[in-house]
Amino acid sequence: MSKSIIAEGKTTSEAIANGLKMLNASKEMVNIKVLEEHEKRSFFSILAPRVVKVEMSLKENIREDNKKYKSKEIKINEEELNLGKQKVDKFLDEFIKSFNNLNYKTEVDLKEGFLKIDIEGDDSKTLIGYRGEVLNSLQVILNSIANKDSKEKVRIILNISNYREKREKSLEELADKISKTVLKTGKSITLEPMMAYERKIIHNRLQSSNKVKTYSIGEEPYRKVVISKK
């Protein structure tokens, strides 16, 4: 059965906009059914808050496309992967040498169609930066190097001293903590701007909750997650 949600607003447009945020979809991607729309109001109800309810669900073709996207395996020629690995190895060798006073160890592996790069060292914070900013910038650089003159897209995943795992755990703990505050106060909370993969961790952590919901607002790189009561 397709995912169906009920959204509310003071107008039909507002209710639909709220529903699109909940489904993280555009208007063309959903089926919309107006459930309650109080256009005619009596004298006695004129002071009561106006509520419009709409039922929304993803269209069948959109759900099928999502299934295909999720199940699709991205395959890349092993020769291209090896060429990408050689270019990354060469760059990292020169890059690490530039840190004269620090000892870093790098490891580049071919794994499930992408290059997995692990870096361990004396002062990992230098390469991680504030909330992974340096790490993510370095990953972008490595992607560019691996894909230079490449016929196929070489994907890179960079990890430094298990930062990715630690960050995921801290974000899951944050999601749990904020959701409890939202339930206690009844007020929505907007988190600080996060990268797409970090927002996904928050969404995934709370997607099975029947008490709170999450959606994203704003434009990159200032896009934020909102946690609110259902």
Question: How is the secondary structure organized here?
Answer:
Blueprint: E1 4-9, H1 12-23, E2 30-37, E3 52-58, H2 60-71, H3 78-97, E4 104-111, E5 114-121, H4 125-128, H5 133-147, E6 155-160, H6 163-185, E7 189-190, H7 196-206, E8 212-217, E9 224-229
Parallel strand pairs: 5-6
Antiparallel strand pairs: 1-3, 2-3, 4-5, 7-9, 8-9
Helix pairs in contact: 3-5, 6-7
Features:
alpha+beta, GMP Synthetase, Chain A, domain 3, Ribosomal Protein S8, Chain: A, domain 1
Task: Count the beta strands.
Answer: 9
Number of helices: 7
Q: Given the helix and strand composition, which structural class is it? A: alpha+beta
Question: Beta fraction of the residues?
Answer: 15-25%
- Inertia-based shape: elongated
Radius of gyration: 23 Å
Helix percentage range: 40-55%
What does the model show?
The chain has 230 residues and is an alpha+beta fold. The protein has seven helices and nine strands, in the order βαββααββααβαβαββ. It has three domains: 4-71, no CATH class; 78-161, K homology (KH) domain (GMP Synthetase, Chain A, domain 3); 166-229, R3H-like domain (Ribosomal Protein S8, Chain: A, domain 1). It has helices at 12-23, 60-71, 78-97, 125-128, 133-147, 163-185, 196-206, and strands spanning 4-9, 30-37, 52-58, 104-111, 114-121, 155-160, 189-190, 212-217, 224-229. A three-stranded antiparallel beta sheet has the order 1-3-2. A three-stranded mixed beta sheet has the order 4-5-6, covered by helices on one side. A hairpin with a 6-residue loop joins β8 (212-217) and β9 (224-229). It is elongated.
